[in-house]
Amino acid sequence: MKAQTVTIVGMGRIGIAIARALRASAAGLTIVGHDRYRELVQKAKDEWGAIDKAEWNLVAAASVADILVLAVPLAELETTLSVIGGEVQPHTLVLDLSVNKTRSQKWAEQHLRHGHFVGVVPVLSVAHLNDGRDGPEAAPADLFHNSIFCLMPSVSADPHAVETAVNFGRLLGATPYFLDPAEYDGLAGGIETLPGLAAAALFSAVQKSTGWRDMLRFANTTFALATQPLLYGTDITGLALNDKAATLRWLDAYLQELTDLRRLIHSGDREMIDLTLGNLLIQRERWLRERGENEWAEGIDVQIDRPTVSDQFLGGWLGGKLKKGKGDE
C-alpha cells in the first residue's frame, strides 16, 4: 500500500510533537512539514528528525496531504484556509487545532472546496503540564500520551472522517473525547481566555509599579509562568471578542474571587487565608492526579475496532471508504 502523507502546517511545539509521535508509531506515514519560518522547517527535518520532507510552499504542502494538520494560531487560520481552500484533495481529512471551533468551522465552510474538516485539540500529558516550556525544542513524542484528544466535528461531518480523526488521536497516545464546537468554546473561556487576560492584567499592574525597574532584574519562574499566556496575544484577543458576554462573565467571576481574597487579607485572618489557599491546593492536586490517571467516571473512551493500523486507520478510509469530498456531490 502506498504510504499515506500527513502534512503538518505549523512547526511549533504542538506540530513538532505530533510529527514525532507519528514517526514513533507503526503507521508508516510520510510526514511533510511547513511553517512560514523556513529555518524552523529545515531544523525540524535536519536536526530534530521530526519530518520526512520540508516544504516551503503552503499550497504544495497542502495539496499532497491525505491528512492535513493545521497547527497555526487562530489569527492566521482564516488566511491559511483561504490560500489552500481550492487545493486540498477531495479525500483529505483536515484537522484544525486552533483555539476557537465555531469560528474555524465557519471559515472552513467558506473557504474549503474539498476535503473533510474536523476540529480537534490534543491535550498535553500531565507529565508536561508544569514544565513551563513552550518552544518546538520541548516537543517530545509523548507530549499527549495518556491524555485526551478532543474532537469537535460538525453535525454534517462524514462519520468515516471522524473515525479517522479518532484513530489519529490514538496514534498520539491519547483517548478520544467528543464535544460540541460551541460547548468547547464556552468551556475554553475559563481555561484559555481567562488565563490570558489575567496574565495581561498581572504584567500590566507590576510593570506600572514604581519598583518595576528593580523587579525586572530578579523576577523569576513564578512571574514568568504566570505571564506566559501573553505569548498568544492575538489568539487571546480573538477568544475574548468571540463571545463578549461569556468573557465578561468569566472576568466578573475572577474579579469576585480577587475581591474575596482582598477581603481576607484586609481582615488579617491568617487561619482563614491558609485554609482557603490550602483547600485550593488540594483541588489543584486532585485535578492533576485525575488528569494523570485519565480514567474519567463518565467514560470518554470510544471503542473502534480495527484489524491493523495501516488497514483501518489510514487504508480503510483514505483507500476508498470516502468516495466523495466536499464539493463533489
UniProtKB/TrEMBL annotation:
Extract the PROSITE patterns matched here: PDH_ADH
| Organism of provenance | Candidatus Promineifilum breve
List the GO molecular function terms: NAD+ binding; prephenate dehydrogenase (NAD+) activity; prephenate dehydrogenase (NADP+) activity
**Enzyme Commission no:** 1.3.1.12
**What single Pfam family name could you report for this chain, choosing any that match?**
PDH_N
GO biological process entries: tyrosine biosynthetic process
The record places domain Prephenate/arogenate dehydrogenase at: 4-295
Family label: Belongs to the prephenate/arogenate dehydrogenase family.
Keyword line: Oxidoreductase
Supply the name of the protein.
Prephenate dehydrogenase
